[in-house]
User: What shape does this take?
Amino acid sequence: MLPPMPVARILALLSAALLSGCVAVGNPIPYNPNPGPIPPHIPHSPVPNGPEVPIVIDNDKGGNVLAAINRRNRIEASGRPVEIRGYCRSACTMFITLPNACLAPDATVGFHAPRIPDTKVIPPIVDQLMAAHYRNGILRKWNDEWRHSLKMTKISAREYVALDPQTRLCPR
Assistant: This one.
């Protein structure tokens, strides 16, 4: 039998995993310290990065929470409108509360506990980092249910807005 591991050592190991970028499911968003302009995801745009051209986040699987926070900060600093479409899950859900964001009326949003890839280990602090980007009923559901569940909980855009009335639905 192995001797018990001190709590401080466990937290240090989990923190190292967190800081190394191992905190999400799916394809991680690579960290780039000098990312340049944010692509508009709109083909043949006459003004590719103009302030009126929306950033479209479409069918985003989420990924690394720290990289998503970095991306969120860059998107917010751009001042451009943001449209969230399709299936937005995991770390993607943190983009919905961007000041210029809207959620497509037919979008689906998915929540689950953050975890170290290929494990069932829920690292400390990551759920709190995500919670900092939620509000109203979404924050309550996150704290009470979703941050503890490895199962994906899917809700419609309209259900999301019912829980967070500050969220705007995109015009059709």
About this structure: The two ends are 62 Å apart (CA to CA). The CA atoms of residues 30 and 78 lie 19 Å apart. Helices lie at 7-19, 65-78, 126-131, 136-144, 157-163.
